[in-house]
Amino acid sequence: MSIWRNAASVEELQERARDTLIERLGIRFTQIGPDFLCASMPVETVGSTAANLCVDAEREVCLGQEINANHLRPIREGVVTATARSVHRGRTSQVWQIEIRDERQRLICISRITMAVVAITPQMRVS
Fold it and tell me: Which of 11, 12, 23, 44 is catalytic?
């Protein structure tokens, strides 16, 4: 069963990222499944994107409250892949666990992000 309220393909997510910081940083969405989102990237933003796919985008937005990360091994070159999985999706908050692996599938970092689910106010809307 899918957790996503907003269906999107990898291609659609990449298109949404055009001319944004996501594109500038070289982040590439690579896979979306019923309960996970993967992206290859030099830095981590996959948890925030996954959280926002789980809310009514017309009424709510997810904003970062807290993030922690345990860096388990160094990486000096190459590409890392992040996989975000939902730990908790509530009415007012979400918690996501993100595993970051290198090209040899070695665990580089394990992270947890807490997102606040807030109602979009008129001041937040972009014309």
Answer: 44
